[in-house]
Amino acid sequence: RQVCEDPGVTIKQDVRPPGRAPPMSGFDVQDLEFPAFDGQALPGRLYRPRCHGPVPLLVDVHGGAWIRGNRLNNASMHEALADEGIATFALDFRMPPQAGAETTFADVHAGLAWARRHAGELGSRPGWVGGLGTSSGGHLLMLNALRGGAPGAAADPEPLVRYAVACWPILDPLARYRMARERRLAPLLDAHHAFWPDEAAME
């Protein structure tokens, strides 16, 4: 058991997964940088409960049809989680037209791996690091959680995350593309064409 202290109150909490910390007196928000696969510094935002002991940590991979969005997409979720004693580290990563799909895959992998290596500094422990992904971010998260990165990438000796929360994820990009084509959903088709080279890559 771990003791968390806030001004005027001491809360005893069981921090062993899958339990979560009880509501605490607020959280802090900090902008950080993490190195991309090629060494470029990318921004991330940490939402950390005010607790002296370690707490579970979710690494957030935002959605946006693979080509839009940033680390602020799910800020309201991150604030709610932090208020309940769960830290969140929200990643930015490069996307088309700035960079191609392989760079996106690699940047997300780098962010997840960095958070695992620096879990202690982020207020957690390596074994308590999980992932949170929404929409296309759910796809990017699960690709890393299940395969360790992009297709063809060398597998990690240790899992990048111990658990994953995928919210409305696009787990079958090819099926989503065919649905969009059948329904003539131009914005979705444009996003697929901007990110994926062809249907074989989606599959």
What does this structure look like?
The model is unreliable at 5-17 (pLDDT under 50). It is globular, with a radius of gyration of 18 Å. Strand 5, helix 1 and strand 6 (87-91) form a beta-alpha-beta unit. Helix 4 packs antiparallel against helix 5. It is of the alpha/beta class. It has 6 helices and 8 strands; from the N terminus they run βββββαβαβαβααα. The protein has a 6-stranded mixed sheet with strand order 3-4-6-5-7-8. A two-stranded antiparallel sheet has the order 1-2. It has helices spanning 75-83, 101-117, 136-147, 173-183, 186-195, 199-202, and strands spanning 2-6, 9-13, 27-35, 41-49, 57-61, 87-91, 129-134, 164-167.
Provide key terms for this protein.
6 helices; globular; six-stranded mixed β-sheet; 203 residues; two-stranded antiparallel sheet; alpha/beta; 8 strands
* Rg, nearest Å: 18 Å
Instruction: Give the uncertain stretches in residue-range form.
Output: 5-17
Give the rounded overall mean pLDDT.
87
Question: What percentage of the residues does DSSP assign to strands (E)?
Answer: 15-25%
Please outline what is shown here:
The chain has helices at 75-83, 101-117, 136-147, 173-183, 186-195, 199-202; strands at 2-6, 9-13, 27-35, 41-49, 57-61, 87-91, 129-134, 164-167.
List the helices and strands and how they pair.
Layout: E1 2-6, E2 9-13, E3 27-35, E4 41-49, E5 57-61, H1 75-83, E6 87-91, H2 101-117, E7 129-134, H3 136-147, E8 164-167, H4 173-183, H5 186-195, H6 199-202
Parallel strand pairs: 5-6, 5-7, 7-8
Antiparallel strand pairs: 1-2, 3-4, 4-6
Helix pairs in contact: 4-5
